Amino acid sequence: MTETPAADEQGSYVIANRPYERDTRYIETRITRDGRDGYPVEPGRYRLVVSYACPWATRTIIVRRLLGLEPAISMGVCGPTHDKRSWTFDLDPGGLDPVLGIPRLQDAYFARTPGYEKGITVPAIVDVPSGAVVTNDFPQMTIDFELEWTDFHRAGAPQLYPEDLRADIDAVNKLVYRDVNNGVYRCGFAGSQEAYDAAYNQLFARLDWLSERLSGQRYLVGDTITEADVRLFTTLARFDPVYHGHFKCNREKLSEMPVLWAYARDLYQTPGFGDSTNFDHIKRHYYQVHRDINPSGIVPKGPDLSNWNTPHGRESLGGSPFGSGTAPAPR
């Protein structure tokens, strides 16, 4: 079993008397078809580094799988826990990523910028020849998978960011990010009662809005899965195992919100979503790493997660997951 870092080796996530503010100073270099930032689309050149614990990283895992980019972009997986220095490749033999040959993701950041002082975050895309991080700009990363890597999509890959729906997808994503994806963190890492109360109210107001929106349509935008569904799903998947208790998002569980619960199960049972979700890694990460809000590091045994495979009934709303495309091959 991987040894968990002691409490004094962990980073701090809560700042007293202040609301939580996410550091969004990402490396914004892009990998594009024309290579305008110096990194052209090239199969086999880049390695996506992720953790199944992280919702932002899980987005990239899902999109990579849905589009069939596995042969073009390899993937390295960090373990679910980390210390304040870096994510580590503790799941691999010898604790080294088998392609990059490094024990810590930090090493790839330092190869790009010696002494890199911002967050060592996943997901990150590493240029294998140089061993340096190209980007950790997760909102742009999946969009580029969808638009810049089309020459390497599998036959039957879905249109996750179709041109005619982009404005609607972007509008929904903006609200979901602010109030839900980041909103749960603003609850969990709030440094005052006032900041927590405001984040809590904003989160559940948006979840109510999403419930109303999804009560009459199967997916967030259009009749098929899009980038918007991927972004919401990774937060919903963590809601009952982590956010409800650990982050005090406890007005009700996801499983007590009928529309969102059915919607989440519909996605979970769709190839690419449930098979990219690792509840064990999710629970171990949040409860063992965030020692300033869970000092003991004890991971709760519950909840029972077998209910994710129960019938959801969302087919009656019409639409189809992949439109004119096809599902990715079973794993």
Automatic annotation (TrEMBL):
Residues 300-331 are annotated as: Disordered. Residues 162-289 form the GST C-terminal domain. PANTHER family: GLUTATHIONE S-TRANSFERASE OMEGA-LIKE 1-RELATED (PTHR32419:SF6), GLUTATHIONYL-HYDROQUINONE REDUCTASE (PTHR32419). Transmembrane segments: none annotated. The lineage of its organism: Bacteria, Bacillati, Actinomycetota, Actinomycetes, Mycobacteriales. InterPro entries: Glutathione-S-Trfase_C-like, Glutathione-S-Trfase_C_sf, Glutathione_S-Trfase, GST_Omega-like_C, GST_Omega/GSH, Thioredoxin-like_sf. This is Glutathione S-transferase C-terminal domain-containing protein. It comes from Tsukamurella soli.
